[in-house]
């Protein structure tokens, strides 16, 4: 890692089972019980699950039918996204009291660059602890945090002591931390990629690090370059406040590859609803719709169509996606589907991103 990169202090804050936690906070009768936000025992997909439900294998993106099978006592709760957004605003207001360099990833997680901060505190670990305490006292929810020199390591670290915990990876610990990390814990390495790495004899960061960039690019394409650098602690992406989106997307990787276009349409309908929610929550619409297809052999294909007008409605999105799906026959079984909206009505706006470098201390 270069010296400039190790001077940064990045915190990743991740709320614990956010949607489910809000429901349990607002409804005391749900506390301590296994709940699923979204879906039902007959249809639909779970959006989030409480930790009590996760013990039974209930998690986001699992079907409601399977969730109920795994946990017969499961309680289904309809999502209330306006409420989640309201709570998220309170949490982000706390973030802004510490630094202007806040990059929201979603309603329930964000990166904070506290290299220089409004509190004048040189310890990123103490700042993370203070932020988590304030969220609990002022909002009533728990959060976990990861602290390190870049976003990649901080993201992984925030998952280490969940729920309601934090982990700091100091600059001189980064390489050892990544070398000892199970490959399935690497951010950006999903279930299918994990299995492929196992087949190639890659089980830990150290074994990933032993592979040449040519080897990784051969087996994983452009992602191979990413894996080569991050396992060496190289991830210099800045925290980007006030980021103006160039696209909004929703995608899902399936546990079982899809072979029927009927099943694909069912999943695309769910993705279209998710995309509509994200667009409307952010008051965004767009003209260009892209269907992303990743096949079981990891080959990837995109199909796009640009409309003459801005849309954000799931019905109109799905109508266009269906047209793109039937544009040509599937080349193989499908492991991932995604829908993206670009050519947005935000593209005439500008965002200024400032990345500061200051002496590093934890």
Account of the protein in words:
- The protein is built from 14 helices and twelve strands.
- It is α+β, with helices and mostly antiparallel strands.
- It has four domains: 3-16 and 82-169, Reverse transcriptase/Diguanylate cyclase domain (Alpha-Beta Plaits, 2-Layer Sandwich), CATH 3.30.70.270; 18-80, MutS, DNA mismatch repair protein, domain I (3-Layer(aba) Sandwich); 175-230, Orthogonal Bundle (DNA polymerase, domain 1); 247-344, DNA polymerase, Y-family, little finger domain (Dna Ligase, domain 1), CATH 3.30.1490.
- A five-stranded mixed beta sheet has the order 5-6-1-7-8. Strands 9-12-10-11 form a four-stranded antiparallel beta sheet, covered by helices on one side. It has a three-stranded mixed beta sheet with strand order 3-2-4.
- The chain is globular.
- The chain starts with a helix and ends in an 18-residue tail after the last strand.
- The model is unreliable at 349-362 (pLDDT under 50).
- Pfam families: IMS, IMS_C, IMS_HHH.
- Its main location: cytoplasm.
- InterPro entries: DNA/RNA_pol_sf, DNA_pol_Y-fam_lit_finger_sf, DNA_pol_Y-fam_little_finger, DNA_polymerase-Y, DNApol_IV, PolY_HhH_motif, Rev_trsase/Diguanyl_cyclase, UmuC.
